[in-house]
Amino acid sequence: MQCTKYYAAACVHAPCYVNLCKGPQLQVIGTMSVGYEHIDVRECSARNILIGYTPGVLTDATAELTVALLLATSRRLMPGKSHITRLLDLSEL
After folding, report:
1. What radius of gyration do the chain's Cα atoms show?
2. Could you tell me the pLDDT band of residue 20, with boundaries at 50, 70 and 90?
3. Start-end of H helices in 1-93
């Protein structure tokens, strides 16, 4: 948690659970995850603590990675790369 004279904020990573006993100066919690289930929303509301999170930020990246893995698997990309590397003795590929 970072506290100064003017503001107080906490930036958390899931699955780390937020400890709201950090002091009365806590005003903002920002989470580097998609959900906010690891934050006690009721307690934050009672103490007027703002919560920031990023819904839907990983949707496109997850879909792109899934398609890339499907293509790599169906085309046997990694075994092919290993075979060519062994044939050409190019370990830096």
Report:
1. 22
2. low
3. 41-46, 59-74, 77-88
**Whole-number Cα distances in Å, 25 to 5, 10, 64:** 9, 11, 41
Q: Is the dihedral of CA 38, 40, 41, 47 positive or negative?
A: negative
- The tokens for 4 are 């100064």
Separation CA 64–CA 41 (nearest Å):
32
Helix axes 59-74 and 77-88, enclosed angle (nearest 10): 60
Residue type, 83: H
Instruction: Give the model's pLDDT for residue 70.
Output: 93
Structure tokens at 7: 């503001």
DSSP 27: -
Q: What is the pLDDT of residues 32-70, one digit of tens each?
A: 777 788 888 888 888 888 888 888 878 888 899 999 999
CA atoms within 13 A on the CB side of 92: 0
